[in-house]
Write a structure and sequence with these properties.
Radius of gyration: 23 Å
Shape: globular
Helix content: 55-70%
Length: about 180
């Protein structure tokens, strides 16, 4: 029981060890809530998954994941930090990084070294595939371009995705006349 209590305390405090700050990154040009009001078509979904997947494999995402998984294998308590940091990021705040504890000049150097390390797997996979490496800025620009294209196509009146009609016995009555049959 004591172990569980200690685990919960460390988990809750690991992501909140610094006062969270609002995200410093510029938001996407298209508000995501506008896109989820209407489901993506099959073609849009396929294109979105392809874009996100290639950004991950040919960018720093692969290296960041490998670094996190490797550190958890070598030092299991670091999983608490990653879980806490994920919770902070999912709530809309910037995650806690080691560079925040350093001075401004040392933080810049540490971030450059970190970017160099985590970009290596993405650069290798991009080289093997014969494509260009995608930095975080380039990946964000590609995703923003896709989201803008989807929003523009919806504004032009491209038909909404069609849904399979529901059989009459499963339809919800919409008028008083329909209620009389119940």
């Amino acid at each position: 029981m004591r172990t569980v209590f200690l685990f919960v305390c460390v988990f809750l405090l690991s992501g909140c060890s610094f006062f969270p700050q609002e995200q410093k990154q510029a938001p996407l040009p298209v508000p995501v809530h506008q896109l989820v009001e209407q489901p993506l078509t099959q073609e849009e979904s396929t294109e979105l998954l392809g874009e996100v997947g290639t950004n991950f494999v040919y960018g720093p995402g692969l290296g960041e994941t490998m670094l996190a998984a490797g550190s958890i294998v070598l030092f299991p308590p670091s999983a608490l930090f990653f879980l806490g940091n994920a919770a902070v990021q999912m709530s809309g705040y910037d995650g806690v990084t080691v560079s925040e504890t350093l001075g401004e000049e040392k933080a810049k150097t540490a971030e450059e070294v970190f970017d160099g390390v985590v970009s290596a797997p993405g650069r290798v996979s991009a080289f093997v595939a014969g494509t260009d490496y995608r930095s975080k800025d380039e990946a964000k620009a590609r995703l923003s371009s896709f989201l803008q294209r989807v929003q523009d196509s919806r504004a032009e009146g491209v038909p909404k995705p069609s849904f399979v009609p529901v059989s009459p016995e499963f339809q919800i009555p919409t008028s008083e006349a329909d209620n009389s049959s119940l």
